[in-house]
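Anyone have tokens for N-acetyltransferase domain-containing protein? Sequence:
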Amino acid sequence: MSAPEIRLLEPADHLAASGLLVHLNPDCPTEVLLQRFRTILAEHDHYVPVGAFVDGRLVGFAGVWIATKIWCGKYLEIDNFVVHPGHRSEGIGGALMDFLETLAKERGCNLQTLDAWTTNHASHRLYHRRGFEVWGFHFVKPLGPLDQ
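Reply: yep, here.
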């Protein structure tokens, strides 16, 4: 397999991205995921969608937030990192991570952060191999249904 092409997504890629997001959010309708994705893009200019392409087909995705927090300064938060199940263990996740680290450095970020489901052990192994450390917990308090 040739190295994937990693690049910022264009509007024509958005539907394919929402198709990948289904793998992370199987209980949420695709239409809802696509609408949320489009809302984020329309309302937040510090959100950057990135894709990994093999033979012109989107097989990996990460949305990243580039912002500033009091405790760390400028940071890049990796959000919704996913590789299509049929393309896992092909180096796509690593190539996408390399691109995101370069992007963070180019944008002057002090660190990268990400959240991972506690049950997603395969992702934990990848993130640890890539130099990520667990520094805290992400607490969540649902206020209503998450699939709407």
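The two ends are 38 Å apart (CA to CA).
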